[in-house]
């Protein structure tokens, strides 16, 4: 059954002159709908005040002809979303669906967007709203799916959602349950901290690789593990900055999908290399005999780089729609209540995938590394308890504990405290520590390099002094 048979529609006949519209005005359509309980038509401006504003760019195709033309602009309003059910059983704002069509021709990639206003009288507290359109053929089990491609969401007031889309089709406002909303006033400082911190980490990661290339002990497997972790963190910082700073309304959908997949891969790879650091630390401190593992570093690289790539490729093959524009809701205080401001980035759209392959994966890594860290500190305490003079080692032990804490990525456990009174402190601490993670790895590498150089120098001096005595 065609969805158009279930809705009333208003046909606007727009006469187009033969001359080009150099200063043409925009077109505004107030759709006419059908009552759910009766067959009488009534203007939506009174009962359901929604409106669509179309740019004069729509008439460009008719202006190039020598004879006057007439365009037929069809505005459609749906009262129910039963004909637009997708695989996720998505919830729409008041089940409102607005559609527009121009002479049965496809209209895409408009330079000036179509503005669709949805007014409502319900509370959006606890929800993230995003403007979407119905994409036919986007799902295997149903005849379409909701997609935010080419649409940008605004909330000018607590009772209005404004959609800016660069094409004509069926539009709606998608509602998704969200956690505690972050105040919109914190968006700028958090973005500034992320930008500065990630930029510093990128420079520090490059310096670390430069120092490593000039190091004499490049055959040390532990140092090479550090470098692989450093490389994954460098990739994570670069893709995060690209994903969060690029403007989504003008970004092609495939580019955003690829960027989101690369960002997810970089995160999984970083978490995997953090777990590998914990495993390597366990081997260094816990083994009594020298344990030889054939092609140890090669196997670790297959795990650290190959396993995350396998997970991401499987997701892309099974359901590539999990990647794309992801909307985050920020609360904004207004005179008539609390409104919401949406921020978009290229990330994971599926809540289940995010729960399993982001929070779950990171949680397992954090638990494993916390156990290894606690065990390493216990061994360090036992070794120092056997020493009579403990004070000379206090400074170095403190630096070692801080270094291991950073190296094992235990600061990522802050992600699990994003609720209630912990929300705002966690946001700032998580953003500061993890955006500077590459810089902390640089400091750890420099301290380890300095310590190994000092040991090598002391060994050479001991050898030379023994030779002089003989």
Automatic annotation (TrEMBL):
Q: Which InterPro entries match?
A: GAIN_B (IPR057244), GAIN_dom_sf (IPR046338), GPCR_2-like_7TM (IPR017981), GPCR_2_secretin-like (IPR000832), GPR1/GPR3/GPR5 (IPR003910), GPS (IPR000203)
A Gene Ontology cellular-component term: plasma membrane
Please verify whether the record's keywords include Chloroplast. Answer: no
Q: Does the keyword Cell division apply?
A: no
| Main location (coarse class) | membrane
Transmembrane intervals? 192-213, 225-242, 262-285, 297-318, 358-381, 401-421, 427-447
Q: Which residues form the G-protein coupled receptors family 2 profile domain?
A: 190-449
Subcellular location(s): the record lists:
Cell membrane
Domain GAIN-B per the UniProt entry, residue ranges: 3-181
Which Gene Ontology MF annotations are present? G protein-coupled receptor activity
Q: Which GO terms describe its biological process?
A: adenylate cyclase-activating G protein-coupled receptor signaling pathway; cell surface receptor signaling pathway
UniProt keyword annotations, A-Z: Cell membrane, Disulfide bond, G-protein coupled receptor, Glycoprotein, Membrane, Receptor, Signal, Transducer, Transmembrane, Transmembrane helix
UniProt membrane topology term? Multi-pass membrane protein
Q: Which Pfam families match?
A: 7tm_2, GPS
**What family classification does the UniProt entry report for this protein?**
Belongs to the G-protein coupled receptor 2 family. Adhesion G-protein coupled receptor (ADGR) subfamily.
Job description of the protein: Orphan adhesion G-protein coupled receptor (aGPCR). Ligand binding causes a conformation change that triggers signaling via guanine nucleotide-binding proteins (G proteins) and modulates the activity of downstream effectors, such as adenylate cyclase. ADGRG5 is specifically coupled to G(s) G proteins and mediates activation of adenylate cyclase activity.
Quote the protein name from its UniProt record.
Adhesion G-protein coupled receptor G5
């Amino acid at each position: 059954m065609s969805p158009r048979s279930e809705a009333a529609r208003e046909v606007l006949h727009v006469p187009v002159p033969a001359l080009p519209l150099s200063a043409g005005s925009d077109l505004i359509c107030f759709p006419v709908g059908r009552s759910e309980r009766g067959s009488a038509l009534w203007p939506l401006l009174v009962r359901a005040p929604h409106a669509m504003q179309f740019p004069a760019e729509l008439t460009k195709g008719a202006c190039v002809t020598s004879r006057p033309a007439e365009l037929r602009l069809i505005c459609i309003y749906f009262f129910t979303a039963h004909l637009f059910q997708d695989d996720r059983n998505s919830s729409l704002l008041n089940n409102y669906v607005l559609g527009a069509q121009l002479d049965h021709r496809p209209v895409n990639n408009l330079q000036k967007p179509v503005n669709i206003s949805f007014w409502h009288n319900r509370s959006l507290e606890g929800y993230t709203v995003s403007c979407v359109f119905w994409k036919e053929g986007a799902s295997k089990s149903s005849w379409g799916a909701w997609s935010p491609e080419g649409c940008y969401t605004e909330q000018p007031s607590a009772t209005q959602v404004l959609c800016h889309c660069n094409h004509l089709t069926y539009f709606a406002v998608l509602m998704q349950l969200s956690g505690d909303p972050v105040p919109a006033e914190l968006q700028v400082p958090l973005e500034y901290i992320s930008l500065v911190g990630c930029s510093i980490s990128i420079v520090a990661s490059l310096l670390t690789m430069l120092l490593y290339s000039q190091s004499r002990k490049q055959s040390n497997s532990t140092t090479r593990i550090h470098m692989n972790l450093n490389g994954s963190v460098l990739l994570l910082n670069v893709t995060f900055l690209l994903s969060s700073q690029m403007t989504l309304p003008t970004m092609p959908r495939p580019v955003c999908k690829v960027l989101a997949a690369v960002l997810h891969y970089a995160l999984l790879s970083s978490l995997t290399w953090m777990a590998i650091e914990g495993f390597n630390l366990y081997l260094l401190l816990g083994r009594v005999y020298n344990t030889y593992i054939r092609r140890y570093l090669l196997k670790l690289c297959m795990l650290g780089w190959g396993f995350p790539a396998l997970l991401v490729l499987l997701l892309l093959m099974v359901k590539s729609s999990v990647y794309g524009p992801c909307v985050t809701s920020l609360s904004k205080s207004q005179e008539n209540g609390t409104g919401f401001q949406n921020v978009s980035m290229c990330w994971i759209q599926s809540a289940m995938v995010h729960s399993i392959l982001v929070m779950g994966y990171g949680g397992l890594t954090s638990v494993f590394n916390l156990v290894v860290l606690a065990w390493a500190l216990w061994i360090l305490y036992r070794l120092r308890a056997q020493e009579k003079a403990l004070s000379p080692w206090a400074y170095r032990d403190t630096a070692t504990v801080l270094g291991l804490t950073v190296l094992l990525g235990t600061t990522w456990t802050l992600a699990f405290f994003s609720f209630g009174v912990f929300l705002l402190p966690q946001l700032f601490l998580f953003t500061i520590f993890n955006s500077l993670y590459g810089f902390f790895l640089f400091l750890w590498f420099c301290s380890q390099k300095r310590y190994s150089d000092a040991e090598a120098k002391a060994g050479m001096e001991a050898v030379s002094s023994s030779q002089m005595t003989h």
